[in-house]
Structures are given as structure tokens and as C-alpha cells.
């Protein structure tokens, strides 16, 4: 048998105090509604097994994933909770799994409603499409008798551009309010993270923040209350002296104009630290800022240690990864910056 594999030279720092604080802030901003949590895509890349227990301990009880395959990790991570699968029962096997596991499917179409009832039915959520035209029962289908057979807990709709001030927000809200009057349900939910900032009329009984829990700032007025949660960190594998005139990394995009001291870290684009950070990213250690030199490789990145002589091999450095600023710097969305972080990180 193989001995235990040693810990990796890269890890995803998770600030659990910040995660807790963000959920409380969003729950407070949700007023009379309760905040749930979107934990799809493995907790937005941070690890569902890591974020769900923290959110549950904070008081969160309603969780949302996209795929059925994401359900077990959430159920195994914390005590009693309500779990909804946003993609709904696409096959009879999905419906049977939901019933056996006590998970609510989000019903997205009349076909899914029929499939759920055929499998035996039970508590479910209903997605009503008020403008996304992606998933959800159309407004014109709300009178269909099959919906009357459902046992609907949360009546959901999803905002198209809650991060912008656009007339579409109010139009969608009115559609959701109309659906609430014609479809029997226990709770109603409209707002994602950005939607929470649109005010009490968007809150219903349950809000569904995702990105803001993890330190994304979808609307500027939310910046003051949200804290950074995730920090990619890597260990320095090797330190070297680079003479003036030498280049660093693939395609020689960086040339040392003076003698330099550089460090090579165990993080690359295969880990989600994409090539758009080449010559642009920055790392932090002991109050020092350590710029990225040259191209990001698949498994390696080189940083400037010239002005940080106390930092050496084996030391850990943290990427400057504040989401709003990183999004502006790279052109990647705050959502992409989190969900692309790879599987080699210790979490
Ligand atoms: C992903 C998702 C959310 C969370 O959205 P954020 O913008 O990350 O807050 C809420 N509701 C649904 C239906 C989603 O798919």
C-alpha cells in the first residue's frame, strides 16, 4: 500500500470568518426573508464540503446545487438541511433518486412536473421563467392542471441582470408576483446576491445568494459589507538569481533589466491561474508585493523576490485575488475567477 501522499504545495485559503460574516450580512440585508445559499459547482469552486458546514453553522438551512451529482457532498457535510437541485428531474432516475434521498427537485417544465408526479411526487420547488428563457415554466403555462398536482415548497424565479439598474428587474418582479397569486406554494424566492440589494419587494421569503457569500461584489453598494473569502496560496519550490539580460519563462516575454532574485511557485493555468495573469498578477507575503514575471505555465509561475530577500524556498505566498479588482484586471467574471480554481489545490 502507498503511504499517505504529502500535502500539496498549493492550497486554497478559505476565510471561514469572512464566509460566516457574509452570510449574516446577506441574511440581514434580506430583511424579513431568510438567506439560503447557492453551493453549486462545488461551492463556487471553494469546496462544498468546506463551505456547507460553515454556512450551516451560521444558520443557513436552504441550499441549492445544479446537478444531482452535487447533492451527496452537500448532504454529507452538515446536519438537517433543505437541498434543492436546480436542473430538476430530467430522467426518471433523477426523480427516483430525489425521492429516495429526500431532496427537492426544482421543477422547470410541465414535462418535469409530470415526471415528478409519475415517480410519486412529494415536496418540490417550482421555477417560473419571467425573462431568462433558459429553464422554468413559462408564464403562459401557469394554468396547466399538472402544476396543481405539485406540492410546491419554494416558488422561484431568477433575475436576468440584478447587478444592473434596468427595467427588466421590475418586469420580472411583477411576473413573479403574478405567479405567486396563481400557484399555491409555501415560500417564494426571487433574489440572487445582487437581487438582495434591490430592496424588500424582491425578497419574498427566501433569498438565494451565491457569489456574494464567497466575496464577490455584484453591486457596488454591497462592497462595504462583504469580505474576501478565498485566497489561492502556493509554496515557493525554488529560488534563483537571474542575471541582467536573461529572460524568464515560455516565449521569453520578460527580460531582466538588472540582476534579479526570483521564486518559482507551484501554481499554473492548470490550477485556474490563467495566462491572463501573465506579467500582471501579484502575490503577497509578509506585507510585500511580489509581481508575476513572464508567462504563467501549466504548473508553474515565477514571481519577483528581488526586494523580499527574507522570503525563500518553502515559504508560502498568496495571490492578490480580491474578486472585483481581479475581474477588472483579467476580464474574467468574478464567478469565473472562483469556479475555475482547479482540483490540485488543498482545500
Ligand atoms: C447560481 C444561482 C443563484 C446564485 O446566484 P449569484 O448571482 O451567485 O448570487 C441563485 N439562483 C439560481 C437559480 C442560480 O442558478
Structural class: alpha/beta
SSE string, helix = H, strand = E? EHEEHHEHEHEHEEHEHEHEEEEEEEEEHH
CATH class of the largest domain: Alpha Beta
CATH topology category name of the largest domain: TIM Barrel
Low-confidence runs: none
How many helical stretches? 11
How much helix, percentage-wise, in residues?
25-40%
Q: How are the secondary structure elements laid out?
A:
Layout: E1 10-14, H1 16-29, E2 34-35, E3 37-38, H2 40-44, H3 48-58, E4 62-65, H4 71-75, E5 82-85, H5 92-101, E6 104-107, H6 110-118, E7 123-129, E8 137-138, H7 145-148, E9 151-156, H8 167-182, E10 187-189, H9 193-196, E11 206-207, E12 230-242, E13 247-248, E14 254-255, E15 260-265, E16 282-285, E17 288-291, E18 301-304, E19 316-319, H10 323-330, H11 334-339
Parallel strand pairs: 2-11, 3-4, 4-5, 5-6, 6-7, 7-8, 7-9, 9-10
Antiparallel strand pairs: 1-12, 12-15, 12-19, 13-14, 15-18, 16-17, 16-19
Helix pairs in contact: 1-3
This protein binds pyridoxal-5'-phosphate.
Can you give me a brief rundown of this structure?
The protein contains 11 helices and 19 strands.
Q: How would you describe what is shown here?
A:
By secondary structure, the chain is of the alpha/beta class. It has two domains: 15-216, Alanine racemase (TIM Barrel), CATH 3.20.20; 230-321, Lyase, Ornithine Decarboxylase, Chain A, domain 1, CATH 2.40.37. It is 27% helix and 23% strand. The chain contains eleven helices and 19 strands. Strands 3, 4, 5, 6, 7, 8, 9 and 10 form an eight-stranded parallel β-sheet that branches. Strands 1, 12, 15, 16, 17, 18 and 19 form a seven-stranded antiparallel β-sheet that branches. A two-stranded parallel sheet has the order 2-11. Strand 13 (247-248) and strand 14 form a beta hairpin. Helix 1 (16-29) packs across helix 3. It is elongated and about 75 Å long. The structure holds pyridoxal-5'-phosphate. Pyridoxal-5'-phosphate is lined by residues 38, 40, 86, 158, 192-193, 208-212.
